[in-house]
Design goal:
Length: 620
């Protein structure tokens, strides 16, 4: 384990080296060059043995100092080595001064000792080096006093003591200044290290949270698939059974099965919606739509729901809340359906009213849902938009539900850049107010060229519709047979994508129903292989509907990217399955433009087709 104190000490030493090493290198270079040049000066100015001695001493000092400069001081990282180098340089300088002064009887050289004293105060990387250098200077001063002329004794004593004392005082001041800066940088480094550790810790926590979120998303996707597969059998068989002759008690039981299946499907959708909202991955579409037409379609279903409880229900549109707009119609309808279904659920008598208006000045859509139901207090209202929260446990026991509806509404509204508030009193009903930015859009042209219109659908086909279905689950195979075979459809069933590909290559089919997760070859790979086969043999594209329990948005995108025409999530009803088949056939007629032929019609005895609004309404 690393000792924090040792780490701080090492950092402090490195900082001191970084400050003093450049000055020491400059000092060594200047002094080394000076002594090299002084060598020639001694030879020119001095005479005899004195010139030779002083020239040799200056040359030796210069060479040694320059050697230190370009070897040890060039990349010194240790503070002790730096201090030793500076002391050696000062020792050589003092030796030159003392030798010249005493040997040549040159009293003027005394001033160089004072310069060395001051230089040591500035350049000494530690007080020990400064103290050693000043001690050397003091000894030299004493030596020169006693060996020099008596007339200069007083002057030398005064200037020497002043230089040594002043240099030491200056060095104390400079070292304190430097130390304070170094301490500050050490503390800053410690803080930065702490910040970096916290950043890494936060990054690790974020990575763990991201991993957990991905794991949760994968779990939800897998659980959604595993639950939707058997649920498709429940809903599909219940709907098929409802189309047969049943007595009253049997019909009631089938209706209960169908209602329970729809409730489970709604619960799955709510959980997936909320998980996407919570992860910030909810996608908002921006397409042109007719506001009145879209909301009227939902209102008809919601009115039926209110009528079952003998409640008055009405939708009132403001002056500007008509025409075409640019936004996500499906999400807006989902918000309205959730709020109205909640209002109907918690209202036993009276009315539920919806007011819809659009502000031309602010381009804000306002949706107000008012009811005369049980209401709630302010404290409950503050908790009501949290996930899995209802007014109290008695509400849960009485009305049921997961408590996700309002949380999903809030998430969708915020994803569209809007806001939501409420007004309510216990026993006096509630009002929920939604405001969403919504841009006005020009109405699309309703005139289309004859070539762009789909071919008419024949009411009596000459030959049965041929459908290839790839489905590995026995229950879902049974559901498809129960729905399609009574309609006179020629159905070929395969257990995996590879078998479906071989069946397609050996025969001709009007449409393919493809599951996504299958053994041997999955549905995406099979779809891609079919499209490649069509391109290679210049065949028209056979419509493919991906019928799968993989119901998340990315699954739909993967299906379309692989080459499927559409995506139908399980559980499906007979009506929704036939809707998907008819839509895919109509699209194929337009895109392929096949020899002027007409598509084969499918006469169904299935229940009335469920619209998107009915699927959203489900069982609230």
């Amino acid at each position: 384990m690393i000792d924090p104190r040792a780490s701080a000490k090492d950092f402090e030493s490195a900082e001191l080296v970084a400050i003093y090493a450049p000055m020491a290198r400059a000092y060594a270079l200047i002094l080394g060059v000076y002594y090299v040049l002084l060598t020639a000066g001694h030879l020119l100015v001095l005479k005899g043995d004195l010139a030779i001695v002083m020239a040799c001493l200056a040359a030796t000092s210069g060479v040694l100092i320059l050697t230190l400069r370009f070897t040890l001081l060039r990349a010194v990282k240790d503070l002790s080595l730096l201090g030793l180098s500076v002391f050696l340089i000062n020792l050589l300088a003092v030796t030159n001064v003392v030798t010249h002064t005493s040997y040549a009887s040159d009293e003027a050289q005394f001033v160089y000792l004072l310069m060395i004293a001051f230089a040591s105060a500035i350049l000494g990387p530690s007080l020990r080096v400064v103290g050693a250098t000043l001690s050397l200077v003091a000894i030299s001063v004493v030596f020169l006093i006693f060996t020099g002329s008596e007339a200069m004794i007083v002057n030398k004593v005064f200037t020497g003591l002043t230089a040594v004392a002043g240099s030491f005082a200056a060095s104390l001041f400079l070292h304190r200044m430097v130390r304070s800066q170094v301490d500050f940088r050490v503390q800053s480094s410690d803080l930065l290290e702490i910040v970096e550790r916290e950043r890494m810790r936060a990054q690790n926590m974020a990575d763990e949270a991201d991993f957990a979120n991905r794991a949760k998303t994968d779990f939800l996707a897998n659980m959604s698939h595993e639950l939707r597969t058997p649920l498709n059998g429940v809903v599909g068989i219940a709907n098929t059974l409802a189309a047969t002759k049943l007595d009253g008690q049997q019909k009631e039981m089938v209706d209960l099965i169908d209602a329970s299946g729809r409730t489970l499907a709604r619960l799955l959708s709510d959980i997936l919606d909320f998980s996407k909202i919570e992860a910030g991955k909810v996608e908002i579409e921006r397409v042109a739509f007719d506001l009145r037409a879209e909301l009227d379609a939902s209102a008809l279903l919601l009115q039926t729901y209110a009528a079952d409880k003998k409640l008055q229900f009405g939708v009132t549109y403001g002056e500007h809340a008509r025409g075409w707009f640019f936004g996500d119609a499906t999400r807006i309808k989902q918000i309205v359906a959730n709020l109205v279904s909640n209002a109907v659920k918690f209202t036993d008598q009276g009315e539920v009213q919806v007011f819809i208006d659009w502000s031309e000045a602010s381009e804000i859509l306002e949706i107000k849902v008012c009811d005369t139901g049980i209401g709630f207090d302010k404290e409950t209202g503050r908790r009501l938009f949290q996930r899995f929260i209802q007014a109290d446990t008695s509400i849960t026991r009485r009305f049921g539900g997961t408590g996700l509806g309002l949380a999903i509404c809030r998430g969708l509204i915020e994803a569209m850049g809007g806001g939501m508030n409420w007004e309510s009193e216990p026993g006096e009903g509630s009002t929920f107010i939604v405001r969403i930015p919504l841009e006005r859009e020009m109405a699309p042209s309703l005139i289309a060229s004859p070539d762009a219109l789909p071919d008419p659908v024949a009411s009596a086909p000459d030959a049965p519709l041929r459908i290839l279905a790839a489905e590995d689950h026995p229950t879902n195979q049974k559901v498809l047979r129960l729905i399609l075979e009574p309609l006179g459809i020629d159905l070929t069933m395969c257990d995996d994508g590879m078998a479906a590909l071989k069946a397609y290559q050996s025969s001709r089919f009007d449409i393919i129903l493809m599951d996504m997760q299958m053994p041997v070859m999955d549905g995406l790979s099979a779809t891609q292989a079919i499209r490649e086969h069509e391109k290679a043999h210049h065949l028209p594209a056979t419509p493919i509907v991906m019928v799968t329990a993989n119901a998340m948005r990315q699954h739909r995108d993967q299906a379309i990217e692989a080459g499927a025409n559409s995506h139908l999530a399980k559980p499906f009803t007979p009506a929704s399955l036939m809707d998907a088949i008819e839509a895919a056939l109509a699209e194929a007629d337009v895109s392929n433009d096949t020899d002027g032929g007409t598509s084969k019609a499918v006469e169904t005895n299935s229940p009335t087709h469920l619209s998107t609004d009915e699927k959203m309404l489900g069982m609230f």
